[in-house]
């Protein structure tokens, strides 16, 4: 299976069109100084008004699935289902129907960070009521779109919400109070909200709709440096537990946080002379409720880092200090354009193997993988082609040689789009978008042609006409 992907706030625009309510990202980007060049998602790729063109481009690429997200405040302007906005609902109905008419399977994310402002006003993800409110939104979406949508992702990269929103405080709501506590409380609530929506699907929709439900977790690979010191290997494992295991261990293992996290945060809390651990505790009933609430494992992968064991200081109560320290990246690894992220294809193979071992060989979808380039005019993007070729090659090795139970691969992304704090600077699209022109024209990059060739040949194209059959193999395993 081959896919393409986008997310609502990053491409739709129409930020206040047809009764849509404001999200925390609308308000955040409207405040000068928050985003590079003060850019906003007000218009973005204007996909709210250009669904037909997007569908045409998707068809030209011959993808068989498209992952996108729903904007919660476009559907419920004030976050609650007393405020249903039929224009918003119809926009998604048209998009879903348009995809199906072209045999493209929709893969839908319920929450890709654009929380209705009205729900932030009652405390956002720190408020336990959010479990109920998210469930009511998810229930509405399953009920309304689930006759046609068979793949649901509840949360995209939830660590970005807790860590970037409530610890580093660079994402809205930029919450700085309660450092070292808030992010753990937020994750605790998100895990319950995810589980609740999963059970709703199970109880009310699964029998008739027959879909799958999961969440997308982002993980970096970490390579111990030097490798021959077992403390570095342990530090690397702890890092993976803090980044992915925080969510995956409760869901895919035993309903509870990883031991490494419980030990580390608990121990540090004790040294800080706190009455109890800053990491909250699940009751036995809650553990039982959360365990097993994902049908497949969804991974977003971008980069790898080196890691070395290090004793952290006990100053402020922060997640950063609970977490392992990463070293400078290996300078021999090529950089991608944004944030000096290194492109490390073999890290993806190792990470897939780690997930296979850690969680008992679950079916895995890579729900994001891609690279952002700086040059906006570059249509002939050899480096992006190189990125996809080398990463897909490592995915093939994981599948063919290591027996990883891989079910699908998603390229991030379909279009250049609003790249959060980086504004429009990082260009992830297989299609270039000209954000200076009001009509936001799209131009396929060479990488789009390359990707469609991968799809056409069911694998990486070779000059001799031979091909490695990633998608063919995946398709045959899935069917
Ligand atoms: C993570 C996010 O899910 C997506 O919104 C973002 O654009 C990409 N990775 C690239 O940074």
TrEMBL record:
Pfam families, alphabetized: Glyco_hydro_1
Entry keyword Hydrolase: yes
Entry annotated with the keyword Disulfide bond: no
Active site annotation, chain numbering: 368
Keywords: Glycoprotein, Glycosidase, Hydrolase
InterPro entries to which the protein is assigned, alphabetical: GH, Glyco_hydro_1, Glyco_hydro_1_AS
Any GO MF annotation of the entry: hydrolase activity, hydrolyzing O-glycosyl compounds
Any one Gene Ontology BP term: carbohydrate metabolic process
Family: Belongs to the glycosyl hydrolase 1 family.
Subunit structure: Homodimer.
Protein known as: Lactase
Species for this entry: Anolis carolinensis
């Amino acid at each position: 299976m081959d896919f393409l992907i986008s997310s609502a706030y990053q491409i739709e625009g129409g930020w206040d069109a047809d009764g849509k309510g404001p999200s925390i990202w609308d308000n955040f980007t409207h405040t000068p100084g928050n985003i590079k060049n003060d850019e906003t998602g007000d218009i973005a790729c204007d996909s709210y008004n250009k669904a037909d063109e997007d569908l045409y481009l998707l068809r030209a690429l011959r993808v068989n699935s498209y992952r996108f997200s729903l904007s919660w405040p476009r559907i419920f302007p004030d976050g609650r289902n007393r405020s249903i906005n039929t224009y918003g609902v119809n926009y998604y109905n048209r998009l879903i129907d348009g995809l199906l008419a072209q045999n493209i399977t929709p893969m839908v994310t319920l929450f890709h960070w654009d929380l209705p402002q009205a729900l932030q006003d009652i405390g956002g993800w720190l408020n336990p009521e959010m479990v109920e409110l998210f469930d009511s939104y998810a229930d509405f979406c399953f009920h309304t779109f689930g006759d046609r949508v068979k793949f649901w992702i509840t949360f995209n990269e939830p660590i970005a919400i807790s860590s970037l929103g409530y610890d580093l405080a660079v994402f809205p709501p930029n919450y700085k109070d309660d450092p070292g506590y808030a992010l753990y409380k937020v994750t605790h609530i998100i895990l319950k909200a995810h589980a609740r929506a999963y059970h709703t699907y199970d109880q009310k929709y699964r029998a008739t709709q027959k879909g799958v439900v999961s969440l997308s977790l982002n993980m970096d690979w970490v390579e111990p440096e030097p490798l021959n010191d077992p403390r570095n290997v342990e530090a690397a494992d702890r890092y993976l537990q803090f980044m992915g295991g925080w969510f995956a261990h409760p869901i895919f293992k035993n309903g509870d946080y990883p031991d490494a996290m419980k030990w580390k945060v608990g121990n540090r809390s004790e040294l800080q002379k706190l009455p109890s651990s800053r990491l909250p505790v699940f009751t036995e009933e809650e553990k039982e409720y959360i365990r097993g609430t994902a049908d497949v494992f969804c991974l977003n992968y971008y980069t790898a880092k080196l890691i070395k064991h290090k004793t952290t200081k006990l100053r402020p109560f922060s997640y950063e200090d609970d977490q392992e320290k990463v070293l400078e990246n290996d300078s021999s690894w090529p950089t991608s354009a944004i944030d000096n992220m290194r492109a490390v294809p073999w890290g993806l193979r190792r990470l897939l193997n780690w997930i296979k071992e850690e969680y008992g060989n679950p079916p895995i979808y890579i729900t994001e993988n891609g690279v952002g380039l700086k040059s906006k005019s570059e249509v002939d993007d050899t480096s992006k082609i190189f990125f996809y070729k080398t990463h897909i090659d490592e995915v093939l090795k994981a599948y063919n040689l290591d027996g990883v139970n891989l079910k699908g691969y998603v390229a991030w992304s379909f279009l250049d789009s609003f790249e959060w704090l980086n504004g429009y600077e990082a260009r992830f699209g297989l299609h270039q978008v000209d954000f200076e022109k009001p009509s936001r024209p799209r131009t396929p990059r060479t990488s789009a042609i390359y990707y469609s060739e991968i799809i056409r040949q069911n694998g990486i194209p070779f000059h001799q006409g031979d091909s490695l059959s990633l998608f063919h193999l995946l398709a045959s395993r899935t069917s």
